[in-house]
Amino acid sequence: MSRLLLWLGLGFLWAPLLLLVGYAFSASPIPFQWGGFSLRWFAALAADARLLEAAWLSLRIALGAATLATLLGGGMGWVLARQGPFRGRALFGALAGAPLVLPEVVTGLAMLLLFVALQGLLGWPAERGATTVLLAHATLGAAYAAVVVQSRLALLDRGLEEAAADLGASPAVVFRTVTLPLLAPALGAAWLLAFTLSLDDVVVASFVSGPAGTTLPMLLFSRLRLGLTPEVNALGVAILALAGLALGLAGAMLARSGRQSGKAG
Amino acid sequence: MPRALTFGWLLGFVAAPCALVLVIAFAPSDAGVPPFLWPLGPQGWRGSLEAVATLTADDFYLRALLRSLWVAAQTAALGLALAYPMALAIARAPARAQPALLMAVLLPFWAGFLLRMAAWIGLLRDSGWLNTVLLALGLVNEPLPLLYSHPAMLLGLVHAYLPFALLPLYASLQRLDPALEEAAADLGAGRFTVFRTVTLPLSAPGAAAAFLLVFIPAAGEYVVPELLGPPEAQLLGRVLWGEFFQNRDWPLACLLALVLLVLLLLPMRLFQRLEQAP
């Protein structure tokens, strides 16, 4: 009974996507109608300068935001897992977790007000766009990265670090040669999570961006409101192919590092 | 070092923006850029209750609020009803099949939120896939108005948030000791009785977490109602968006954000309590 429902549920999750992919290869100008096999919508996608520009902007923002989020979130996770009680710890924890539970519209509005206030006080940022979106996405991504890093640190065997310290390694050397390698998979997962969040966000970006900064999700959203074209199907295939490639690479890397640590152990 | 740096970032980029929302909810609106006057000036406090007056002038906002809670509750209930048997089936599957099954649930996530909504638009609209099939089979004579409806919106919301419900359920069901269920069965309980008296109570915290993890984001959702829902589905997220972008009433948008936060405080607290429980 529950197994039947599992397959039904998976069908519900997958069917729309599989149809989206299948009809990307249809010649018909009406989306989700079959008009014979054709690659014309991929050609249309490749010739769509506005869309490619938005995709390139989104990619650059996501790379920067994910990297900054991993550094910040890694630091937050470290503070929460490793530094004992300090003044303001409860506030620190609440602020680190707040972006996880705040509705997107509230986060977007609040971040925008910050940039407007900063502009009024300091004259910076002179105009909103890629930089403001990057900062907002980094703040959001850091909250997720902090959870991933904190939970990994909580599970980490302190004995390994203590052994290295007993053998004469300075705290910096212990961190670099023991803690950081053990933390690497968590940092990688945190980076990937922040990267995906940034590439997928339309609400926060719509609030904090300006006329010069239309990201791919913002462009896609405005087009979906006007109507669907088969170009969107072709875009879906391209994104799924890239995501599949990235996941395959990540999986291969994980498998390799697993084998290596297996040998070492 | 990392503490000072990250604490500084959190104060600047999380605490300060939230404080600004609180302040500007009570700012007088203005025709300039930005469209409000700072309530704290050199002259002291010159706040205004304009936004509060607009909010309470008629029941439009109250209705949006109740509608948001209702839609969020429906989404969470449907998500839970679908995710529970799926999580149970995955938790009972052979251990080596479980990662692949979990991956099958999570992979559609990677396609991106908007593309999944695009797929639903393509399936449900008047000239969409579902109507084409129904017309070709002769089941209907004219296209059914499926898109821009309440069910279409719920479908999109459940599709968007199903993994949020499934993961905590899977975690709690997977931890469950099978010996407990076997003991109940050995003592003569039927399969349904075992489920009702052992499995269900033990997975209740996971189910509550699943419900809240869907309820919280769904209550403030903007994109799905906008793309799939009917025009009259004025949920709080959509109303806030409209006040901000179309009416340029920033103080009212801030006040709506505060209302949404106060409303979600209780579910958030409940969720924290569940997280802290062993």
Description:
The complex is a heterodimer of chains A (265) and B (278). Chain A has 11 helices and no strands. Chain A is mainly α and 265 residues long. Chain A has 2 domains: 16-47 and 228-265, no CATH class; 50-211, MetI-like (MetI-like fold), CATH 1.10.3720. In chain A, helix 3 (49-82) packs parallel to helix 6 (130-155). The longest helix of chain A has 35 residues, at 230-264. Chain A starts with a helix and ends with a helix. In chain A, 41% of the residues are buried. The mean pLDDT of chain A is 90. Chain B is mainly α. Chain B has a two-stranded antiparallel ribbon. In chain B, strand 1 (40-41) and strand 2 (44-45) form a beta hairpin. Chain B is globular, with a radius of gyration of 24 Å. Chain B starts with a helix and ends with a helix. Chains A and B meet through helix 1, helix 3, helix 4, helix 5 and helix 6 of A and helix 1, helix 3, helix 4, helix 5 and helix 10 of B.
In short:
The complex is a heterodimer of chains A (265) and B (278). With 265 residues, chain A is an all-alpha fold.
Mean pLDDT of chain A, as a whole number? 90
CATH topology of the largest domain in chain A: MetI-like fold
Structural class of chain A: mainly alpha
Helix percent band of chain A: over 70%
Residue share in helix of chain B? over 70%
Any idea what the CATH architecture of the largest domain in chain B is? Orthogonal Bundle
Please give the CATH architecture of the largest domain in chain A: Orthogonal Bundle
How is the main sheet of chain A built? none
SS element count, helices of chain B: 13
CATH topology name of the largest domain in chain B: MetI-like fold
**How many DSSP E strands of chain A?**
0
Specify the biggest β-sheet of chain B.
2 strands, antiparallel
CATH H-level superfamily title of the largest domain in chain A: MetI-like
> What is the CATH class name of the largest domain in chain A?
Mainly Alpha
The structural domain count of chain A equals 2
* Quaternary structure: heterodimer
